[in-house]
Amino acid sequence: QKEVEQDPGPLSVPEGAIVSLNCTYSNSAFQYFMWYRQYSRKGPELLMYTYSSGNKEDGRFTAQVDKSSKYISLFIRDSQPSDSATYLCATSGGSYIPTFGRGTSLIVHP
Amino acid sequence: KAGVTQTPRYLIKTRGQQVTLSCSPISGHRSVSWYQQTPGQGLQFLFEYFSETQRNKGNFPGRFSGRQFSNSRSEMNVSTLELGDSALYLCASRIPLAGGTDEQFFGPGTRLTVL
Questions:
Q1: How are strands ordered across the β-sheet holding B74-78?
Q2: A–B: how many Cβ contacts below 8 A?
Q3: What is the pLDDT of residues A60-86, one digit of tens each?
């Protein structure tokens, strides 16, 4: 079992939909939770990060962490075709080396 | 400020050959990490170099090696290539984030195909 599990999708939604992307993790020592976005032919770039449990909002994006169930979520409101990308969740504990999920491919069609 | 650069962008090799990939981190960043990305396994950490010293290593065989130069540029070498080494190889430099973790800045990657 991988330490961070993520459904690879693809997830296809119409423009304007609310998107929910999710990961589960197994190591309770993980304290930092990150979402990276990767466009085709590019490297991943950090979208959001949170520490411990709770919510964090940034524009149309909301990151949510539930440490009791070891569940990480990213919500995208009013999704746009430009949001089409692969979204990778990542976690880390005391070490700064993150453990990544496999990524979920999101397609937002007009 | 220029981002992380990687060369070459695409590479085709045959089994048994060796390959060297190059990475230049963001100016001023002293650490370079290497990752392998495949559809099946996702993004997996290979190793990290800081000030010319390997500081962390992932769970990869000894055929994967690297080094870092005094100007922080790094090279990764894979010897005796296998079909399963076909992947996107990403390099990253990092900066601390408020709260205790780090942000990884990734290059565009080198797409290696082993035939």
A1: B5-7, B19-24, B74-78, B64-68
A2: 59
A3: 999 999 999 999 999 999 999 999 999
